[in-house]
Automatic annotation (TrEMBL):
Lineage: Bacteria, Bacillati, Bacillota, Bacilli, Bacillales
PANTHER family: 23S RRNA METHYLTRANSFERASE, RADICAL SAM CORE DOMAIN-CONTAINING PROTEIN
Gene source species: Thermobacillus xylanilyticus
HAMAP family according to UniProt: RNA_methyltr_RlmN
Keyword terms: 4Fe-4S, Cytoplasm, Disulfide bond, Iron, Iron-sulfur, Metal-binding, Methyltransferase, rRNA processing, S-adenosyl-L-methionine, Transferase, tRNA processing
UniProt-recorded name of the protein: Probable dual-specificity RNA methyltransferase RlmN
Protein residues bound to [4Fe-4S] cluster: C111, C115, C118
Catalytic reaction equation(s): adenosine(37) in tRNA + 2 reduced [2Fe-2S]-[ferredoxin] + 2 S-adenosyl-L-methionine = 2-methyladenosine(37) in tRNA + 5'-deoxyadenosine + L-methionine + 2 oxidized [2Fe-2S]-[ferredoxin] + S-adenosyl-L-homocysteine; adenosine(2503) in 23S rRNA + 2 reduced [2Fe-2S]-[ferredoxin] + 2 S-adenosyl-L-methionine = 2-methyladenosine(2503) in 23S rRNA + 5'-deoxyadenosine + L-methionine + 2 oxidized [2Fe-2S]-[ferredoxin] + S-adenosyl-L-homocysteine
Membrane spanning stretches: none
Length: 347
């Protein structure tokens, strides 16, 4: 199978042009066609010589994704189910906010982390995505937004899968989408989320980027987190927190802790107090997320008044916290839900 053109950085395209006997500036032109003009075929790249277009077509596959399903929420959220070349499917979500349009991308087909409240892990991990398959989610969504003159302003890497278990492809994706000659999305407008893959938290701290880091925590202690997130047995709570402290000290950047509130499990006042103790003095923000109902799971949503009570306790203890505004609730926009339905229908 030919490699995807979106798998290549600008420097790699320049190397390819050199090997193909072409001048380096052709790579800049190609990059512009891919990410600024966003054409869908090499034939449309009219300022490239015909012979070069033929070479590119022979060397690379252009399209990585095919649209299987598109669901649109009453709040403007759009969820795509994209098919891959090997008949796997992934989800991508485009969300509209008062500050602009964001996209939530997926980094793996399925997930092996095993969080007990999440649909992404149903069926386990099938494979990692290439950098180009992650890039293609952004480009494809932007091509659709081009029809209405809208632009993706920010990216969250919070779709299905664990980005830090597909670390190299995730970092390459970030280099491509932030390049000034391409999509040029600012690093500060991108957030990558991890369940706590400790070695790669340290690696990420040393990358010297301005990209935001979020940690899925979901519990204030080791025992409860292990019940909710089996990955905690591999990377215990204390080790995760130590890595986060290193990240904050090294980068001076605030970390976001994502905390899914599950009715009667991790949402009691004593959990809020314990979480405040753990995070005391840390440069951080807590994003409280009312858990999404997943038919295959038994968990229920925390009552509204309990969500606000949990939030008030954190705030009273000096912990910066917000309650995530729900989007796409009517179209199964939570990670893995649409793909799970698709897998079931295929079976």
């Amino acid at each position: 199978m030919k490699p995807f053109i979106y798998d290549y950085t600008l420097d790699e395209l320049k190397d390819w042009m050199k090997e193909a006997g072409e001048p380096a500036f052709r790579a800049d032109q190609l990059f512009d066609w891919l990410y600024v003009k966003r054409v869908r075929s090499f034939e449309d790249m009219t300022n490239l010589p015909k012979a070069l277009r033929a070479k590119l077509d022979e060397a690379f596959a252009f399209v990585a994704l095919s649209e299987i399903t598109r669901l649109t929420s009453k709040d403007g959220t759009v969820k795509y189910l994209f098919g891959l070349h090997d008949n796997h499917a992934i989800e991508t979500v485009v969300m509209r906010h008062n500050y602009g349009i964001s996209i939530c991308v997926t980094t793996q087909v399925g997930c092996r982390i095993g969080c007990t409240f999440c649909a992404s892990t149903l069926g386990g991990l099938k494979r990692n995505l290439t950098a180009g398959e992650i890039v293609a989610q952004v480009v494809t969504a932007q091509q659709m937004l081009d029809e209405t003159g809208e632009r993706i302003a920010s990216i969250v890497i919070m779709g299905s899968g664990e980005p830090f278990e597909n670390y190299d492809a995730t970092m390459k994706f970030l280099r491509i989408v932030t390049h000034a000659k391409g999509l040029n999305i600012g690093q500060r407008h991108i957030t990558v989320s991890t369940s706590g893959i400790v070695p790669n938290i340290y690696r990420f701290a040393d990358e010297n980027t301005q990209i935001n880091l979020a940690i899925s925590i979901h519990a204030p202690n080791d025992a409860l987190r292990s019940k909710l997130m089996p990955v905690n047995r591999r990377y215990p709570f204390d080790e995760v927190m130590e890595a986060i402290r290193y990240y904050i000290a090294k980068t001076g950047r605030r970390v976001t802790f994502e905390y899914a509130l599950i009715g009667g499990v991790n949402d009691r006042p004593e959990h809020a107090e314990e979480l405040a103790d753990v995070l005391n003095g840390m440069l951080c923000h807590v994003n409280l997320i009312p858990v999404n109902y997943v038919p295959e799971r038994k968990y229920v949503r925390t009552p509204r008044e309990d969500i606000f009570a949990f939030h008030r306790i954190l705030q009273s203890r000096g912990i910066n916290a917000t309650i995530r505004r729900e989007q796409g609730h009517d179209i199964a926009a939570a990670c893995g839900q649409l793909r799970a339905k698709h897998m079931e229908s295929m079976r």
